[in-house]
Amino acid sequence: MAYTLVSADGPQSVPALLHRNAKQFANAPAYREKEYGIWQSWTWAQTREEVEALALGLLELGANEGDFIAISGRNRPYLYWAMMAAEMIGAIPVPLYQDANAEEMAYVLDHCGARFVVAGDQEQVDKVLEVQDQLTKFERIIYLDPRGLRKYDHTALDQYSALQDTGRKNRDLHINELEARQAKLNYDSIGVMLYTSGTTGKPKGVVLSNRNIIETAKSSSEFDKLRHTDNILAYLPMAWVGDFIFSVGQALWTGFCTNCPESADTMHVDLREIGPTYYFAPPRVFETQLTNVMIRMEDASRFKKWLFDKFMAHARKVGPDILDGRPVGTLDRAKYALGELMIYGPLKNTLGLSRVRVGYTAGEAIGPEIFDFYRSLGINLKQLYGQTEATVFITAQPDGQVRSDTVGVACPGVELKIADNGEVFYRSPGVFVEYYKNPESTADTKDAEGWVATGDAGFVEQSTGHLRIIDRAKDVGHMVDGSLFAPKYVENKLKFFPNILEVVVFGNGLDACTAFINIDLTAVGNWAERNNIGYASYQELARHPQVMDTIQGHVEAVNASIAEDEMLSGCQVHRFVVLHKELDADDGELTRTRKVRRKIIAEKFADIISALYDGSASVSTVTEVTYEDGRKGSIAATLEVRDAKVFADTRKMAAE
Amino acid sequence: MNDLADGYVTADGRQIGPVVMEMKNITLRFGGVEAIKDISFDIRQGEIRAIIGPNGAGKSSMLNVISGFYVPQDGEVWYQGSRRPPMKPYEVAQQGIARTFQNIALFEGMTVLDNVMTGRLTNMKTGMLWQSIWKGKAEREETENREVAEKIIDFLEIQAIRKTPVSRLSYGLKKRVELARALAAEPSILLLDEPMAGMNVEEKEDMSRFILDVNDEFGTTIALIEHDMGVVMDLSDRVVVMDYGKKIGDGTPHEVRNNQDVIDAYLGVAHD
């Protein structure tokens, strides 16, 4: 695909794109939010007015060029505007994870030295006020929802709308300054700073320039032929690079409309009402949706269940081929059309995915069954591989070349390289500027020629040019006998079972692999209900003998499939426990994006790990837990350790 | 001493205004049973006033007197500076007094939104005929009322169940919907009959926060009956204690807690 750089006289900054859209798409919807039961919308022209008013208000507060302005709250148009307003005045927006606790927030605010914080509601304001003594540069909070804040001391608080009003009132005073500052913005000025979730250690601030944002937005929009009439639903954390690129970068570049749900609880209803044409969700979301559909089908009448099974079987057979435009027989097509009318169409409508033209999933491996389920319905779900450091896009699957086991081909403008140890490197116009205040890490990650280490091990398939990712490069190790150890590979295989929510596999440098397993309370709970098994808590269900038997069955099925893989047959799980608590970000066991933190888990549950290796049949343990409000408690439990059947490498056996 | 001066400011910065409602020597009889015996107390603008007491003390009867459902045989009810003649409950509602019920009284088959909209009924001026034509004024009125209802739905964070029939909701949520319906009337006095009965700790915490927020944001005066002592002591500005139809204590939570009669009533001593 031909790849051209944005011409030198094109818009060179995020605010410049906003001005362009305000002219070009003046009366087209730019942002929508459901509030008071109605979708409120703002056109591009109105959006510019709102952003400008806030920018003028920020000037009134004395915000300087190069200041950091943190933004924390759920996805709302106002907060996206706050990011654009910050860019307009030459400051740098820093979106934060809204569910971060006060300590985590303090680290980030202190690290970037934010002078202003735009907070969504009382909860966010409280967190900042709690830690403000630890912050040296912090000055004011601008809050959105005034609820509960009336009685707060307002010496360092401003209401968002009031600040905009001040900005509008004093427009004449500041407009020249605002225009001068925007004129100074160019391709190399900083557009945003995003903190990585920090799978290892403290979060790092990834600095992205306007070049990174605009080039990536342009090439990815062209790759998927996005149009200004498209709609997306913005519901993933604003601090995540993907949300920034979809809801700000691509939205500005193509001029499509970003829709914000009413609240986290209403997400599914809002999804149905909007019917996005461009949709992103991590595998977990697709998995949960599929689990819910299956659970509800279990409760459906026998005829409906039969109809569903019948047509879904047909969809699995021909659906993906029809989607990819491969030849399919007339009779099969007719049957598929009937299925569309009776099952697929209504189901897609229920899921809110009727209009999806381009759908993506990324972040984790997606189970082939789940992936195929959506594609067989005719939803163009694809995979991409990306990183904050690459401004999202490294590889993506082009239409018609979609498979569940690869992450696609290099995106336009991206070069790929595989190092000797299997680590994937890339170079692209989206490569980040630096880690803020961390030149060592920057140098470790990005070399002088601009190649960036992904930290993931993988290989490029010779025949197709598709990239396949095996595991985190640093997690790939060796067992005592020298065979390859790739925990993620095993974990993903186990997680494809709906009953299993989370897995951690151990075994690096040891003689056998063992695993911690979290059951999926929705799926297993439903099974328990149907089989008249009573339980009071996650803990009780997790140690039920029948649940243990089921999980053991899953582990052994995975062992059998791993045994067929020559390179990884050593990774079979010999012993496992079902953990007594769900791994949780509040306890530091997962990152905020729900990735497993191996080292912390290994330290915290050292007693259980030793039981996995010393042959004992059970282990008693006490674990500290942190509640959402920050209080601490503990859970005591006795866990059963199970042995799973392992299989000899079938291919080796045959060879001998 | 149970009197707060006008303009008294509470620890959390709320300002308590003048007396808006005064009960003077109320006596209520059902046949020979005296449910309420010669009780007097007042409610001030902007305060949270609790009525507590053991089972059968006459708390709900007292609330029913305030809401106009029962007409006391003796005594006077003064509201906003004038004596209130015996009234029908709907007339009381029109005066700006709304309530919730101990045993939830919602329309089970209707959605949450429709239930909340019924709370707007006293604010509708167009007649049935005009509403059935649903043009012009009637339509405008409906839009305005829907807006108020939606603001309350937003305030009580029940957007996700807006279109859900009430019968499908949990007990705690039903209680919240009932509060929403009462608030929809934009009352100046809100009467809550055991708003937290049968709730778990988490639901109680949520409900307490909503009650405080309502009082704080809308300045609504609240009179509530509650069994949970912890909740009462934390929420209310002043407490009336009843036992066997009589008032045995009245004052701030601190005063009431140290009142010997109250301690006796709750811990139990022989009654004559």
UniProtKB/TrEMBL annotation, chain A:
One of its GO terms (cellular component) is membrane. One of its GO terms (molecular function) is long-chain fatty acid-CoA ligase activity. The keyword Acetylation does not apply. PROSITE patterns: AMP_BINDING. The keyword Nucleus does not apply. This is AMP-dependent synthetase/ligase domain-containing protein. Residues 19-436 form the AMP-dependent synthetase/ligase domain. Keywords: ATP-binding, Nucleotide-binding.
UniProtKB/TrEMBL annotation, chain B:
This is ABC transporter domain-containing protein. One of its GO terms (cellular component) is plasma membrane. InterPro entries: AAA+_ATPase, ABC_AA/LPS_Transport, ABC_transporter-like_ATP-bd, BCA_ABC_TP_C, P-loop_NTPase. PROSITE patterns: ABC_TRANSPORTER_2. GO terms for molecular function: ATP binding; ATP hydrolysis activity. It comes from marine sediment metagenome. Gene3D superfamilies: P-loop containing nucleotide triphosphate hydrolases (3.40.50.300). Residues 21-269 form the ABC transporter domain. SMART domains: AAA. PANTHER family: ABC TRANSPORTER ATP-BINDING PROTEIN (PTHR45772:SF1), CONSERVED COMPONENT OF ABC TRANSPORTER FOR NATURAL AMINO ACIDS-RELATED (PTHR45772). Keywords: ATP-binding, Nucleotide-binding, Transport. CDD domains: ABC_Mj1267_LivG_branched. It holds the Pfam family ABC_tran.
